[in-house]
Amino acid sequence: MPRAVDGTRRKDRRKNILKQAKGYWGRRSKLFRTAKDAVAKADLYAYRDRRTKKREFRALWISRISAALTDHDINYSRFMHGLDKAGIEINRKALSNMAIEDPAAFTSIVNTAKNALK
After folding, report:
1. What global pTM score does this model have?
2. What is the CATH number of domain 8-117?
3. Would you kindly state where each structural domain of the chain is located, as residue ranges?
4. For the chain, what percentages of helix, strand and coil (3-state, to nearest 5) are there?
5. pLDDT in tens, 38-57
6. Given its phi and psi angles, is residue 73 left (phi above 0), alpha (psi -120 to 50 degrees) or beta?
7. Which of 62, 93, 94, 104 is closest to 79 using CA atoms?
Protein backbone atom coordinates (compact mmCIF):
# COMPACT_ATOMS: atom_id res chain seq x y z
CA MET A 1 0.00 0.00 0.00
CA PRO A 2 1.49 3.39 -0.96
CA ARG A 3 2.35 5.94 1.68
CA ALA A 4 0.00 8.93 1.83
CA VAL A 5 1.91 12.19 1.97
CA ASP A 6 -0.70 14.77 1.00
CA GLY A 7 -3.23 13.88 3.67
CA THR A 8 -5.80 16.36 4.92
CA ARG A 9 -4.52 16.18 8.50
CA ARG A 10 -1.11 17.31 7.37
CA LYS A 11 -2.53 20.11 5.24
CA ASP A 12 -4.83 21.25 8.03
CA ARG A 13 -1.99 21.34 10.56
CA ARG A 14 0.24 23.32 8.20
CA LYS A 15 -2.57 25.69 7.28
CA ASN A 16 -3.31 26.29 10.96
CA ILE A 17 0.32 27.12 11.75
CA LEU A 18 0.64 29.43 8.75
CA LYS A 19 -2.59 31.11 9.81
CA GLN A 20 -1.12 31.71 13.27
CA ALA A 21 2.04 33.14 11.66
CA LYS A 22 0.08 35.63 9.58
CA GLY A 23 1.62 39.07 9.90
CA TYR A 24 5.08 37.81 10.81
CA TRP A 25 7.99 39.30 8.90
CA GLY A 26 9.46 37.66 5.80
CA ARG A 27 9.83 33.90 5.60
CA ARG A 28 8.31 33.46 9.05
CA SER A 29 4.85 34.03 7.58
CA LYS A 30 5.31 32.11 4.33
CA LEU A 31 7.36 28.95 4.86
CA PHE A 32 6.07 26.19 7.11
CA ARG A 33 9.34 25.25 8.81
CA THR A 34 10.29 28.77 9.83
CA ALA A 35 6.67 29.63 10.65
CA LYS A 36 6.47 26.61 12.93
CA ASP A 37 9.51 27.79 14.89
CA ALA A 38 8.23 31.36 15.04
CA VAL A 39 4.80 30.29 16.30
CA ALA A 40 6.36 28.03 18.95
CA LYS A 41 8.56 30.88 20.14
CA ALA A 42 5.61 33.29 20.14
CA ASP A 43 3.58 30.85 22.24
CA LEU A 44 6.41 30.62 24.76
CA TYR A 45 6.64 34.40 24.99
CA ALA A 46 2.87 34.70 25.37
CA TYR A 47 2.79 32.11 28.16
CA ARG A 48 5.72 33.71 29.99
CA ASP A 49 4.48 37.27 29.60
CA ARG A 50 0.99 36.56 30.88
CA ARG A 51 2.69 35.99 34.22
CA THR A 52 5.16 38.85 33.83
CA LYS A 53 2.33 41.29 33.12
CA LYS A 54 0.92 40.77 36.60
CA ARG A 55 4.29 41.61 38.17
CA GLU A 56 4.78 44.69 36.01
CA PHE A 57 1.34 46.12 36.75
CA ARG A 58 1.80 45.62 40.50
CA ALA A 59 5.14 47.46 40.30
CA LEU A 60 3.47 50.28 38.33
CA TRP A 61 0.69 50.65 40.91
CA ILE A 62 3.22 50.72 43.75
CA SER A 63 5.34 53.39 42.05
CA ARG A 64 2.24 55.52 41.38
CA ILE A 65 1.14 55.26 45.01
CA SER A 66 4.65 56.06 46.18
CA ALA A 67 4.79 59.12 43.93
CA ALA A 68 1.45 60.34 45.25
CA LEU A 69 2.63 59.86 48.85
CA THR A 70 5.63 62.19 48.46
CA ASP A 71 3.26 65.17 48.89
CA HIS A 72 1.97 63.72 52.18
CA ASP A 73 5.38 63.19 53.88
CA ILE A 74 5.04 59.44 54.28
CA ASN A 75 6.70 56.60 52.44
CA TYR A 76 5.01 53.62 50.83
CA SER A 77 5.89 51.00 53.43
CA ARG A 78 4.74 53.15 56.38
CA PHE A 79 1.54 53.96 54.49
CA MET A 80 0.75 50.31 53.83
CA HIS A 81 1.51 49.47 57.47
CA GLY A 82 -0.85 52.27 58.54
CA LEU A 83 -3.59 50.92 56.30
CA ASP A 84 -3.11 47.47 57.81
CA LYS A 85 -3.32 48.87 61.35
CA ALA A 86 -6.40 50.93 60.47
CA GLY A 87 -8.09 47.82 59.08
CA ILE A 88 -8.50 49.28 55.61
CA GLU A 89 -8.40 46.55 52.98
CA ILE A 90 -8.05 48.18 49.58
CA ASN A 91 -5.94 46.84 46.76
CA ARG A 92 -3.05 48.64 45.11
CA LYS A 93 -4.84 49.03 41.78
CA ALA A 94 -7.70 50.90 43.45
CA LEU A 95 -5.28 53.04 45.47
CA SER A 96 -3.35 53.91 42.34
CA ASN A 97 -6.50 54.94 40.48
CA MET A 98 -7.70 56.90 43.49
CA ALA A 99 -4.40 58.79 43.71
CA ILE A 100 -4.76 59.82 40.07
CA GLU A 101 -8.52 60.40 39.71
CA ASP A 102 -9.66 61.41 43.21
CA PRO A 103 -6.85 63.07 45.19
CA ALA A 104 -9.22 64.23 47.95
CA ALA A 105 -10.30 60.68 48.79
CA PHE A 106 -6.69 59.53 48.62
CA THR A 107 -5.70 62.28 51.05
CA SER A 108 -8.36 61.16 53.52
CA ILE A 109 -7.10 57.56 53.33
CA VAL A 110 -3.53 58.78 53.88
CA ASN A 111 -4.63 60.75 56.94
CA THR A 112 -6.45 57.69 58.31
CA ALA A 113 -3.31 55.59 57.84
CA LYS A 114 -1.16 58.26 59.54
CA ASN A 115 -3.54 58.41 62.53
CA ALA A 116 -3.44 54.62 62.87
CA LEU A 117 0.36 54.75 63.08
CA LYS A 118 0.32 57.17 66.04
Report:
1. 0.77
2. 1.10.1900.20
3. 8-117
4. 80, 0, 20
5. 999 999 999 999 999 999 99
6. left
7. 62
